[in-house]
Amino acid sequence: MDQVKIGKFIARCRKKEKLTQMQLAEKLGITDRAVSKWERGLTMPDSSIMLELCGILKITVNDLLSGEVVIMNNYNEEMEKNLLDMVRQKEQADKRLLRAEVFIGFTSVAILFAFIAAAAFLEMEAWLRAVLIVTGFALFLAGCLYAVRIEQVAGYYECQHCRHRYVPSYKAVNLAQHMGRTRKMKCPKCGKRSWQKKVLTKE
Fold first, then answer.
1. Of all helices (H) and strands (E), which one includes residue 183?
2. Is the predicted pLDDT of residue 87 greater than 80, yes or no?
3. C-alpha–C-alpha distance, residues 203 and 198, integer Å
4. Rounded to an integer, what distance in angstroms lies between the CA atom of residue 154 and that of residue 4?
C-alpha cells in the first residue's frame, strides 16, 4: 500500500465533502494532527475507525486502501491485492516486534548484571547496595514482562495436534512452560496441550 497516495486521496475526499481537518477529526473523536499525518502519508488510519472514516468520506474501505475509487470490474483484483499487502505489512511488523523482544530481553539481563556488579564491587552503604539490587531486579522483571507481551501479540502459536494457529491470552503465554519461543499451552480449538511454536503467518 502506498501511504502517500492514500493520504492524498483522504485529503481529496475530505475537501470534496467540504470538511476541514478539524471537522473530520471531531467526527471521528481524534485530533486534527492525526488527520494531518494521514494526509501527509506518515501514518494510516487505525482499523477501529476505518469504517467510520469511509462512511464520512463516502468511499469503501477498498477505495481507501487503494488510494483511489476502485472501478467495479477491477474490484476483486484490487481487494485481493490490498488484503495481501495488509498481511505482508503485518508479517513485517511482527518480525520487527520479535527482534525488539530479543533486544529488550538481552538489555534487561545486561541491566540486572550491571546493577548487581555495581552493588558487589563498588563501595557504598548497605542500604544503597540493597536499593541497587532491588532496582536491578525490578527493571529486569519489567523488561521480561514487556518482552512476553510482545511475543504474545506478534504472530501466532500453532497447535501441534490440530495445526490451529491463534493468538493466546497474555496470561496463558506468561504462565506457560517454554523453551525459547515454544510454549506448552492448551489449544482453544481442540482443547489439547502441546508444545506450540511461534509462527508469523495465520495459515
1. strand 182-186
2. no
3. 13
4. 26
Q: 126 in a domain, yes or no? A: yes
3-state secondary structure of 55: helix
pLDDT above 90 (res 127):
yes
51 and 123 together in one domain: no
**CB-based contacts of 49: which residues, under 8 Å, 6+ apart?**
28, 29, 30
Specify if 83 maps to a domain: no
CATH number of the domain at 60, please: 1.10.260.40
Q: What is the pTM of this model?
A: 0.61
pLDDT of residue 161: 93
Place of cell 470538511: 19
Cell of 195: 508444545
| C-alpha span between 94 and 8 (Å, rounded) | 27
The position carrying cell 502441546 is 194
- Structural domain containing residue 172: 93-199
Note whether 116 and 169 are same-domain residues: yes
DSSP 113-172: HHHHHHHHHS---HHHHHHHHHHHHHHHHHHHHHHHHHHHHSSEEE-TTT--EE---HHH
Residue 71 pLDDT > 90: no
pLDDT value for 68: 86
Q: Does 59 lie in the same domain as 101?
A: no
Domain count, the chain: 2
